[in-house]
Amino acid sequence: MPIAASVKEIMNNKGSSVIRKMFEEGIALKAKYGEDNVFDFSLGNPDMAPPKEVYQAVQEVAKDENPSRHGYMPNAGYMETREAMAAKINKEQNLQGEGKLCGKNIVMTVGAAGGLTCICKAIISPGDELIVPTPFFAEYRHYCGHFGGKLVPVKSKKDFSIDVEGIKKALSEKTAAVLINSPNNPSGKIYSEEEIRELAKVLKEHGEKCGRKPYLICDEPYRAITYDGKKVASAFPLYNESMVVTSFAKNLSLPGERIGFVAVNPKAEDADELVAAIIFANRTLGYVNSPAFFQKVVAKCWDAKVDYSTYQNRCKMITKVVANAGIEFVQPEGAFYLFCKAPLPQKEENKKYILKNDDGEYCDEFAFCDHMKKYNVLCAPGSGFGCPGYYRMAFCVSEKTISGCEESLKKAKETW
Amino acid sequence: MPIAASVKEIMNNKGSSVIRKMFEEGIALKAKYGEDNVFDFSLGNPDMAPPKEVYQAVQEVAKDENPSRHGYMPNAGYMETREAMAAKINKEQNLQGEGKLCGKNIVMTVGAAGGLTCICKAIISPGDELIVPTPFFAEYRHYCGHFGGKLVPVKSKKDFSIDVEGIKKALSEKTAAVLINSPNNPSGKIYSEEEIRELAKVLKEHGEKCGRKPYLICDEPYRAITYDGKKVASAFPLYNESMVVTSFAKNLSLPGERIGFVAVNPKAEDADELVAAIIFANRTLGYVNSPAFFQKVVAKCWDAKVDYSTYQNRCKMITKVVANAGIEFVQPEGAFYLFCKAPLPQKEENKKYILKNDDGEYCDEFAFCDHMKKYNVLCAPGSGFGCPGYYRMAFCVSEKTISGCEESLKKAKETW
User: Fold this and answer.
1) Is B319 exposed, middle or buried (0-12, 13-18, 19+ CB in 10 A)?
2) What is the pTM of this model?
3) How do beta strands B260-264 and B106-109 pair?
4) φ and ψ at B42, to 5 degrees?
5) Statement to judge: residues A83 and A193 lie in one domain
6) Closest in B70, B75, B254 to A254, CB measured
7) Number of folded domains in chain A?
8) Residue A349 belongs to domain spanning
9) Of A6, A74, A146, which is closest to B146 when you measure between CB atoms?
10) Could you tell me if B30 lies within 8 Å of chain A, comparing CB atoms?
11) Would an 8 Å CB–CB cutoff place B58 in contact with chain A?
């Protein structure tokens, strides 16, 4: 057995790597049919250029010929950058007084994904559980699974808001944390302040009763991207044992640069020890530190913004296109994903793809996604996100791709 | 228990994080006594500026305003960069014909440390073993430990060459790989082609007998830094089941940028599956991809070099300084580390630090390193590298630091 058995098993699991596989299939299809004839909604890879402040900052850092510019720094990152990130969080979460963060509450990481992996290493012992409301970002399974943790999905309400009662039932002494992602990938849902408050109350009560306080991890890379004036609730004032993990992948369009951070609520019990454990994980997992160059860049331009109105327009366009094709979807409140219901097949030969669960009949979305591929439309199946029967369309793509896919989508629906 | 018990235990282990802790202590001491009065040999953080080709490449990439410049690419990296790295390995290992690598044998990673962690994830099942000759880079323990692997140190010969018979005895069906680091951190030893050939023979025989072929992992970030015309042997032509992992931390002085890669021998059985497993690990461990910007930079300037003659001069200086202080050491053949024997204490009150093992008496090097700190000399204890009684001096520091420490070192020795 050349590779580890567990890795082989996961690699062969069709749900696990289907999104990334599709990204590579998309590249191949575009090479074959031409960029304009492939409608690739498979990956959350922002197509918008970073804002001009990023380019200015990149130029400035590029000119800095200090010999140590590209050297090691403390594993948590440059203190100047950590202070800037603390200011960002204080502003976003409207923190004041003793609740305010400073640089020592921040660990710079290799993107939000690297931050989440470090958090998992820091808090999860084998057999521990990480609770997530559905739908959830597919990779969470791996981040906790690497360290013997188990992802425990809790089904959300019909409108994809958090089922706090459901989470309460799932809590146990094995619960290391509850992980929420708002705006949500893939549903576009923003959890309300009321939901977070209720969730915090349940977590507090559980912690007092069982002696182990679950952390609340808020994965917020899409915080700045919201529609119709919606605001993302702040967890820090509502629950002490909380962390925010985020990146500059979406709001500064820098996903490939792997720049992100973890912010630990200074009011958390043993906050300093938790930070130390995350830094330890950052070092020993081989990240060592967040890339030096972009730490300097984001310290200069963290408050810049890509033009979110573009995403708002695209959101309007894609909901119209998908509605015109007669496909149901969840109205996005933020992020840049449209979560669609795979339609039940009408053609006799496809009826084998009608499946059943407690909520009734639904369509095998892997089959429908394969069917859409015939029309050069690439979407991500929902099973990986814990929602079979749904699929995700990432609309961080050009307007031309969105409007161009309408006919293909209609045909896919008609021939299904 | 807010953080995982295993993490807490390792964080409290004095050997495990002593080097990094010392790096941060060094920063504090310098703030207190002034940069010139602290002799910090604790960390392998190159002080030499990157070569001019790097600055030129950084400027060029900084000017590239292609909107996708900072976006995601396939998890293995840009194909253009992977092809460049294949060319680098073909040149270094003098590969020809069907043994030659191409881009698909390369995975770009977050430094060599990220590459090693991905390899461990890809090939280690819980209970598997990773054999390393002593001394070894202290972090190897973590890279395999995260996935339930066990590091099995095999004592090297007195001159720190590989004890191939010792490795033969340590091999079992649990052996996932043998990991060698040449030039070695911390001993500066270069393993000869003859040693690698013998090792390869033993690994082949074991693989045929037991049915599981152990990988040979060559960690080579110091390959280009050698003294007196010494050459680093190439493993690929000698053993099919081999990998090279390396970075641009040392030869281009870019450790903070976290840019490295894994090269898989195309002759390895299931080479493509192994590459796929490493890419899977790269994605799911939250690295996602090697930082985009520096992938573009190193594709342009991988063949540039910092001025290695500077390291050669420093090597001459430090060996003289340490010899003058009456301290024994291993003559470095490459890299920028001097591995010294902690002297047996002469003062009555320090005799409690004399310890014993199979080779006879030796000095508790933690105590001697603490003692040197009183004279503002910072060195890394050898226990973390699997060699109690030794300590490491990293000489990637200024000539002034090297010559300046002579008096302090003498005093430390005299008062011991």
Assistant:
1) middle
2) 0.95
3) antiparallel
4) -80, -30
5) yes
6) B70
7) 2
8) 5-50+306-414
9) A146
10) no
11) yes
